[in-house]
Design brief:
The protein has nine helices and 13 strands. The protein has 322 residues and is α+β, with helices and mostly antiparallel strands. It has a seven-stranded mixed beta sheet, with helices on both faces. It has a four-stranded mixed beta sheet with strand order 3-6-4-5. The chain has a two-stranded antiparallel sheet with strand order 1-2. The model has no long low-confidence stretch (mean pLDDT 94). Bound molecules: adenosine-5'-diphosphate (ADP) and magnesium ion (MG). The site of adenosine-5'-diphosphate (ADP) has 13 residues, from helix 1, strand 4 and strand 5.
Length: 322
């Protein structure tokens, strides 16, 4: 059996890098971080709990990827570039068959974003993974939820709904054939954080949020914090490749209120459309214009003919009754 310190040394400690803002990494009482002069730190935590955010027995490599991806997604939604993160881990047992692939999935994504694991905590307990991530953003360029203005366009990155479609398949809510489920599943297990797009949108977009609980609910946070309303073209929402093959009714439901998409929803002035498209190309991320911010409060949905749609949609809430 591995001791706590063997485990940290073997799976989570790596040689320190030159030119890193992490002045002191794993091994002391605290890590020391020296943020680049003049930048603001963007900080976010996300916890993944077995049985709540992932199925018991979930693939450890994908889990390692996902727990960092959801944190990177928060940085993306702020326009921040990743710097470093901490990992607090409760584990039922120090099992090499789990730790090895978990740390590989985690650190492979960390390397791709040049984001250093600088510390954490390890304890025995029900499987629970909590990451706190640190990013940097120039002052006045962060993409805040309270910054949307009437007249702004509303944009979405990538596609929506395939993660929710995979969940529906696992839960047998729909008869989903096996190939379809296998093709949609990576959107649920291994989301792609839109870090490059978030950084490219600095100085162009106004407000942004990452879509974790469903577009309607998450856009609702921007509207609430900005004191504005919006109209959305429900039938212009980009559906995932697998969801596109489903009924129009399901497409609307899962693009509007799916959850677990980790795409960005952002607003930008209408005179910056070309710049938004250029930011999308620069970061190799598709972007689609799906509506507009309006002064009148509330969210109005339109169909393809511009007619009002009245759909009862709710976003995901951990404490709502089932
Ligand atoms: P302390 O008891 O002083 O908090 P620990 O014994 O918990 O210190 O941790 C020893 C070192 O290992 C610290 O630098 C801590 O940040 C690091 N560490 C502990 N767990 C992890 C982990 N899961 N991932 C990365 N670093 C970790
Ligand atoms: Mg500790």
């Amino acid at each position: 059996m591995l001791s706590e310190f063997d485990l940290i040394a073997r799976y989570f400690t790596r040689p320190s890098r030159r030119f890193s803002p992490v002045t002191l990494g794993i091994g002391d009482d605290c890590a020391l971080l020296s943020p680049p002069h003049g930048s603001q730190l963007a900080i976010s935590s996300d916890m993944l709990v077995e049985g709540r955010h992932f199925f018991p027995g979930a693939d450890p490599f994908q889990l390692g990827h996902k727990c960092l991806a959801v944190n990177l997604s928060d940085l993306a939604a702020m326009g921040a570039a990743p710097v470093a993160f901490t990992l607090a881990l409760a584990l039922p047992e120090a099992n090499a068959e789990w730790l090895e692939p978990f740390s590989k999935g985690l650190l492979a994504l960390a390397d791709r974003h040049d984001c250093e694991l600088m510390g954490g905590d390890t304890t025995k307990g029900p499987l629970n993974i909590c990451i706190t991530i640190f990013g940097q953003v120039p002052p006045d360029q962060s993409l805040r939820r309270d910054a949307a203005r009437p007249g702004d366009d509303i944009w979405i990155s990538g596609t929506l709904g395939d993660a929710r479609l995979a969940l529906a398949g696992y839960r047998n809510e729909l008869p989903l054939d096996k190939d379809m489920l296998n093709a949609a599943a990576p959107r649920m297990h291994a989301p792609t954080p839109r870090v490059g797009l978030g950084v490219a949108l600095r100085g162009i977009a106004r407000a942004a949020i990452d879509i974790s609980d469903g577009l309607v609910g998450d856009l609702g946070h921007i509207l609430h914090r900005s004191g504005v309303g919006a109209s959305l073209d429900a039938d212009l929402l980009p559906a995932g490749a697998m969801l596109s093959a489903q009924s129009a009714e399901l497409r609307r439901r899962f693009t509007l209120a799916g959850g677990d998409d980790y795409e960005l929803c952002f607003t930008a002035p209408a005179n910056r459309r070309d710049d938004v498209l250029a930011a999308g190309s620069l970061s190799s991320t598709p972007v689609t214009r799906v509506g507009s911010i309006e002064a009148a409060p509330g969210l109005r949905l339109r169909d393809a003919d511009g007619k009002p749609l009245d759909l009862q949609l709710t976003s995901f809430d951990h404490f709502a009754s089932p």
